[in-house]
Write a structure and sequence with these properties.
With 418 residues, this protein is mainly β. It has a single domain, classed as 6 Propeller (Neuraminidase). The protein is 7% helix and 44% strand. The chain is built from four helices and 29 strands. The longest helix has 12 residues.
Length: 418
């Protein structure tokens, strides 16, 4: 289910943020409700041996990936509190959303969408004067959408790029919350339809809308809402879909626990809920649907302590924690969310910052193995990370970074450079 009301770090930490990086195409149908094999169900949740192997990987000197600078002059305070949102279209064009600042105080931040065609330079298109949460998503080549709560009017808005390079606007008939700075949303797609959820502050439900881009006259339609009181969206990306279902991560205002809620497209109903009963202290950052592991989530976990731990859970709607990877106490910076995504070959990636945020790391698990590898991919702080898989199948990460003199920039990092 990216800062007009999020300009201060405290708001960043405790508000529902959503910069969707749900770029994977989920054309295959998943049966995430099926029971998992008995052998898997009998395994221990926390794989202690994996933790040891991950620690060894962190100790190895690894050459950082080569970053590309997209925007050289970002105000320091803005870089620390803003978000980026990254996606890739079928032609391999990267679409990157961020806020451009024309002065050091960033008095009029411009929501800007940059795009980079394969082998070409970055080109920017301005969307609106805006601060706050937003998300970029794309199905058809050259026709992304950007979703955001408007900074001046009490509406949720989507701008859709047409084939001739124009941006069309649509306002959703969803009332904003009591405190609009705490309103959340998420956006995703399944290759032919977009899905957007809206979770206004102190609202009795989460609204769901869809747009079939293959229809003769595509129109946003409202679907059955999720009846849940005062919900809270995941911090980075909490909405995913396959051909038959939509999966939403949300924190219930009634139980105070994160869970996954399944929407059945054929029934137009929300028939199933699974809560994180074992790991109730998990603050979910990001959700992914994966070929081998079903539903995977990454987030920060305290487990009764005040030490932040990167925790990854994988499972199904019958049990969200069939497999759990605890990366150890002190493995995660509490100020920055992690981002989870699946590669084309089934590899699961989690981009995150360790305590102190002096480097950017990627944890990865190849298909058919329980072993996680951790690699330092950038030596320096990073903020507002978003992930995507490019046309060649490589992981791409967008983020802000600042040097020791507080000079900041917007960068994109490739797993391998062509």
């Amino acid at each position: 289910m990216k800062k007009y009301y999020f300009i201060y770090l405290a708001a960043l930490l405790f508000s529902p943020l959503s910069a969707c990086s749900c770029e994977g195409d989920h054309d295959a149908e998943w049966n995430l409700d099926d029971e998992w094999p008995e052998a898997d169900a009998g395994e221990e949740d926390i794989l202690e041996d994996d933790t040891a192997e991950e620690q060894d990987a962190k100790d190895e000197p690894i050459e950082p990936w080569e970053p590309e600078e997209v925007e050289p002059d970002i105000p320091y305070d803005h870089a620390l509190t803003d978000r980026t949102s990254l996606d890739v279209d079928p032609d391999g064009t990267l679409w990157l959303g961020y806020h451009y600042c024309s002065d050091l105080s960033c008095s009029e931040p411009m929501l800007r969408v940059m795009h980079k065609r394969v082998g070409q330079d970055w080109v920017g298109e301005d969307i609106a004067i805006h601060e706050g949460i937003f998300g970029v998503n794309v199905i058809m080549a050259d026709e992304p959408i950007v979703v955001y709560p408007d900074s001046f009017e009490p509406v949720y808005r989507v701008k859709s790029r047409t084939s001739d390079g124009q941006w069309e606007s649509y306002d959703f008939p969803v009332p904003r919350g009591d405190q609009m700075e705490y309103d959340g949303f998420d956006v995703t797609e399944n290759g032919h339809s977009y899905f957007i959820t809206f979770a206004p502050d102190n609202a009795p439900q989460v609204s769901l809308f869809t747009l079939d881009v293959a229809a003769s006259a595509p129109t946003w339609r409202e679907l059955s809402p999720l009846e849940i009181q005062d919900s809270q969206a995941a911090m980075e990306d909490g909405l995913q879909t396959d051909e038959d279902n939509v999966y939403l991560v949300n924190l219930s205002g009634e139980t105070g626990i994160y869970g996954v809620y399944r929407y059945d497209q054929e029934l137009d109903q929300w028939p199933q809920t699974a809560e994180l009963q074992t790991y109730t202290d998990l603050f979910v950052h990001s959700l992914a649907i994966t070929q081998n592991f079903g539903l995977c989530m990454s987030g920060n976990y305290q487990g009764g302590t005040n030490v932040e731990t990167l925790l990854v859970t994988c499972g199904s709607m019958d049990d969200l924690t069939l497999e759990v990877k605890d990366f150890g106490e002190g493995s995660l910076s509490a100020e920055t969310p992690s981002s989870i995504i699946e590669g084309n070959d089934g590899t699961v990636y989690v981009a995150f910052n360790p305590p102190g945020n002096r480097e950017l790391r990627v944890a990865s698990r190849r298909p058919n193995t329980p072993v996680w590898e951790v690699e330092t991919v950038y030596n320096g702080p990073s903020y507002g990370i978003s992930t995507a898989i490019d046309h060649s199948g490589d992981l791409v990460i967008s983020f802000y970074t600042c040097d020791d003199e507080d000079r900041c920039s917007l960068k994109v990092l490739w797993e391998t450079m062509d």
